[in-house]
Amino acid sequence: MNTGLSLDPVEFLKGALEIPSVSGQERAVAQYLAEGMRRLGFTKAWVDEADNARGQIGTGPVQVVLLGHIDTVPGEVPVRLEGQKLFGRGSVDAKGPFVTFILAAASLPPEVLQKLTIHLVGATEEEVPSSKGARYVVDKLKPDYVVIGEPSSWQGITLGYKGRLLVRVRREKDNFHSAHHEPNAAEELISYFVSIKAWAEAMNSGQGPFNQVQYNLRDFRIEHPDTRQLAEMKFDLRLPPRLSVEEAVRHLSAYAPPVLDLDFSGREVPYVGPKDTPLTRALRIGIRQAGGEPVFKYKTGTSDMNIVAPHWKVPMVAYGPGDSTLDHTPNEHLEIPEFLKAIEALRFALTRLAK
């Protein structure tokens, strides 16, 4: 691959991995990435008010947004190159895909950049419910096509993600003697969670993984002040496209006794895009030109696609190198040949969009 400038792809990514960027602490890596885009000849490269790494290249009428995220979950993975594997927190999720975006855009020839304007967004706080970076840009850009930077493997094209709903449940009541035949606050929450589990399993009967409701208990706490008892639990649901956030809230509220206090947040809507659009066709062609065989994927997690899809009603997919089963693990690493193939495939795809 020839970017036209002396910036080694692997060293550029390695440098990004060496800068910690846990959610809320992304500014340093955003500055590094913006400087890299300047060196690669981007028309504009800067860090915006949400600490997003931003770049723009090309002058054409077709507007393409390449939106990845540059924050990571906590947990150090020592950055190192072992053979053809680059280890480091964010190598897969998702600095690797975003650096892929930068290098693919920078390698486009002038005749393509006369037809496309490409907007790079390295978004902040994707790994937490705030999704600060993506929310900041939704009313500032008007794309014709959108690619979200998430690991799909270089031959994979992700068409959809489940939605998400975060739930906090509290119960506070007067203390009483343990000999008194009455469930305590914690037991009331446990009963409620068991009922939600039964509801979800009934909803999942006969459904494949992408169409199932997933539930995950995240936290459970009990406090015993002198005269009161307090219990609180937090859980989240992953929602298939057939179950809207509003419908899930109605179900959860209906199963809750009036004495429970429910709070809902992180309302991310499910999204599934069509298989046949100019964008999916361009990516399929690009992957084949790079020597691969494209496959469509659906993810049971969430991404910034869930945030921007309700605002940008245009062809949209997620794409990027990496094995998503390594997300958040102590073994997170990116295969260098796959990284380079993804740059090549995306460059071919963007060229196709310009025709």
TrEMBL record:
Its main location: cytoplasm. Its EC number is 3.5.1.130. It catalyses: [amino-group carrier protein]-C-terminal-gamma-(L-lysyl)-L-glutamate + H2O = [amino-group carrier protein]-C-terminal-L-glutamate + L-lysine. The gene is lysK. The lineage of its organism: Bacteria, Thermotogati, Deinococcota, Deinococci, Thermales. Gene3D superfamilies: Zn peptidases. CDD domains: M20_ArgE_LysK (cd05653). SUPFAM superfamilies: Zn-dependent exopeptidases. This is [LysW]-lysine hydrolase. The active site is at D71, E126. Pfam families: Peptidase_M20. Catalyzes the release of L-lysine from [LysW]-gamma-L-lysine.
